[in-house]
Amino acid sequence: MQRFLQLTDWLNEIVGRVFSWAVVLIMLITVYDVAVRYIFGLPTLWAFDVVKQLYAVEFMILAGFGLLHNQHVAVDVFTAKLDRRKQAMLEVVSYCVFFLPFMVMLIWQSYQFAARSWATKETTWGVIAMPVYPIKTVMVIAAVLLLLQGIAKIIREVSVIVGEEQA
């Protein structure tokens, strides 16, 4: 069990650290596009589509990293006055009722979405017709990473309930 927790945390940490650099690439492409457009009067045909796809990748793939570091939206007003054990119980129930079914559906639907895109070699409607299927594949990968991190969270919360808190 401990090995699963460590591997899941490590995987989301590595993915998060690597893909967080996409924001730098997004900024550089945007600055380049603005400079070329206003200084030389030469608009780029590709910059907007590339930035949009990079942002989509960054937004999706960092979800597991965000959950690992508790950077997700939480309504603590309901749990703040509860002791740690009761908070853990509420977390486990809410993850089992809301998170797990949603993640199973998300993985299933995003897989079908990506598979259709790969089958047709789907592209954007822009001037340069960039491929869309890699981005849609990222949806599946991101959902799996988030599911793994959610399972790790449930395991940790259950260990709090039974009095064997995991690191």
What does this structure look like?
This protein has 167 residues and is mainly α. The protein contains 6 helices and no strands. α2 (22-39) runs antiparallel to α3 and α3 packs parallel to α6 (133-161). It starts with a helix and ends in a 6-residue tail after the last helix. The mean pLDDT is 94.
Give a brief rundown of this model.
This protein is mostly helical and 167 residues long. 74% of the residues lie in helices and 0% in strands.
C-alpha geometry: elongated
* Euclidean distance between termini CA atoms: 12 Å
Percent in strands: under 5%
Task: Tell me the series of helices and strands, N- to C-terminal.
Answer: HHHHHH
Number of strands: 0
Structural class: mainly alpha
Arithmetic mean pLDDT: 94
Write the layout of secondary structure elements.
Elements: H1 2-19, H2 22-39, H3 47-61, H4 63-68, H5 84-120, H6 133-161
Helix pairs in contact: 1-6, 2-3, 3-6, 5-6
